[in-house]
Amino acid sequence: MQLNLDMQISTSQPFLESHQPFLAQVAGFFIVEERVLRTADKILTQSQVEATWETAIAKITAICEIQFSRMGIASHLLLVKDYITLLAAVLKKYGYQTRPLIQILDNTRDKYHQLLLTECRKQVDDILANDSYEQMLIKKEYEYNMNVTSFHLEPSEATPDFPYLAPFSSSVPDVCRIIRSFIEDSVSYLSYGGDINLYDVVKRYLDRLLIEVVNNCLLNRMYARSLAMSQMMQLAGNISVLEQACDLYLFYSAQQCGIPKRVAERSRSSLTARAVLKASQNAAYNALINMANSKIDEFMVLLDDVNWIVEESPDNANDYMNEVLIYLETLVSTAQEILPQEALYKVVSGAVSHISDSIMATLLSDGVKRFTSSSVVGLDMDLNLLEAFADEKFHITGLADLGKETTFRDRLVEIRQLVNLLLSSQPENFMNPVIRGKNYGSLDFKKVAIVCEKFKDAADGLFGSLSNRNTKQTARTRSLEVLKRRLKDFN
Questions:
Q1: How crowded is residue 19: how many other Cβ atoms within 10 Å of its Cβ?
Q2: CB 259 within 8 A of CB 199
Q3: What is the pTM of this model?
Q4: Burial of 438 (0-12, 13-18, 19+ CB in 10 A)
Q5: If we measure between CA atoms, which residue out of 381, 432, 389 comes closest to residue 411?
Q6: What is the mean pLDDT of residues 426-437?
Q7: CA-to-CA distance for 263 and 245, rounded, in angstroms?
Q8: Which of 260, 379, 430, 470 is most buried, taking the most CB atoms under 10 A from its CB?
Q9: In 315-404, which ranges are E strands?
Q10: Residue 68: which of 111, 31, 32, 29 has the closest Cα?
Q11: pLDDT tens digits, 463-480
Q12: Do 14 and 34 form a contact (C-beta atoms < 8 A)?
């Protein structure tokens, strides 16, 4: 009768408020039972106490499982878990079998972490949505310690001069705080004495947090298409910092679990999230390339205004190239402040390649019916400016010191080789395998054939009434005609 009375749960209070007196009464009852068994000869038997305990623990587990299933807040599960753990620890000292109580916590481990992940997702989404994606300005040393040093976000241990402009925006330390809090909450729940490898389990849930929450939130922010170019650069830079901080998360998990740092160092490669964040980082770089190329397209439409049948060689580069160079200057200067060098290389290389491809596509398109050597001279001037810019930026950004096999200039090789071919004194040499391999190896036969059919050494009757004079056929013109015929035969 006393046990039945003690095991009645309050119907007027939520279980979160009534679980402590409920479990405390159960503990008190069985502590008394153990005392009576031990001191009052023959009043109770061992089998009677064990049978009573089996009945009680079956009811306790049923009640707790039902109540856990109804909870929707991670911290509520944690509170009840703590008291169940206390109940198990106390009664185990008195010789009772408490494994079923621990089994309850084993069974709710995933639910707790799923609730925790859901709460973290909302927090990370809010942080990313409210970030300005501008480099974080830190004015005081305590701010630096709180946002940088505590997360080891800078490789140098020396304290910088203030004000200090961090390479990341405010969302990075805020997300790191959420990750650290998640690790602490995970360890708190899992530290109930179950038959688990605590560090391995925490690490597995950390992986889920980084992949399912942090990474997916970053991707959603990236694909929302609401960020300007500079903001997208900062987001890409942030992902790089968060990826590099994966070691910190592992070491902190090990510390919380009481694991030596050397063990965490051996498990660094087992964190799947590192590779996932690296992939998202590359996705951000690709998004930057696409954004840069879209902006470049706005200037490349000025190619439509180029006079392709001009008789006299121009004195200056075409307008589209001047606009492109102004944009590229802004792109490089902004990227240099925010992005890692590898990302800078990818973005600028992609932009230069896109310019080359756009010029080639224009020459191949139906929009250009004919063009003269004078217009090609203008195109050569455009490329000279772009190549000079590419060489300068490749060196001043420090990329030349990294030993890159392909420079920015190399991204222009196809259109450069085409212009060189059209301006050469003997274009028919293109058909010579040795010369072609040396000077025109990036050119496609079909593209060359299309362009050569449109190319005239000078303006003549093919362009309507532009000129009535008879142009004497030059050696280069004859060589070009030979090339056209041989390309037709080749095709």
A1: 22
A2: yes
A3: 0.80
A4: exposed
A5: 389
A6: 90
A7: 17
A8: 379
A9: 371-372
A10: 111
A11: 444 444 444 447 878 888
A12: no
